Amino acid sequence: MRLILVRHGETASNVKMALDSLPPGPPLTDAGRAQAAALAEQLAAEPVTAVYASTAVRAQETAAPVAAAHGLDVEVVDGVQEIFCGDLEGRHDREAFEVFIATVKQWAEGELDVPLPGGESGRQALDRYLAAVDGITAKHRDGDTVVLVSHGAVLRMGALALARNVGPALAEAGLLPNTGRVVLERGDDGWRCTSWTGVDVVGD
After folding, report:
1. How far is 109 from 14, CA to CA, in rounded Å?
2. pTM for the structure as a whole
3. Given the DSSP bridges, would you call strands 199-200 and 181-187 parallel, antiparallel or unpaired?
């Protein structure tokens, strides 16, 4: 089974670097809609059997062209929304961004119980994300290719937890670009990452 994890397209919050975690959130910008259309073209040749999106508008709008290209509907799933930013919600100043990045770095290094100020801990975010992924994958068979559109920070944390060949250095390598993709494949011994934003990932 292949799981294609996708970050949503551009929003106005992305343009001004605002921390924006609460669904339903803002829609895509014109550029974001163009990114979603390009994503659909890039995935048109993939044997996609299902397309899922978070409860955020931006994720659903990104997923819609992909689903349409394969004659599918977007299935909205709870649990894969962005990490709740708490007191940092809506802020776009340098201090807030640095607190967010430093906290996520701690999570990637194993300190999952550290919370964002007034927000979620890494363990809380990861528990809900992984439960949602388990629910999705339980509905599909080996050989299926499934697309899941969600959000950059929770996607990186989820891939780190799921794939045995993704380490903290890769998960911390930088923000996923809008419509950036992480591809996971499941074998008898679990998930491994084969591609991280277009770069092949080697090793088991």
Report:
1. 26
2. 0.94
3. unpaired
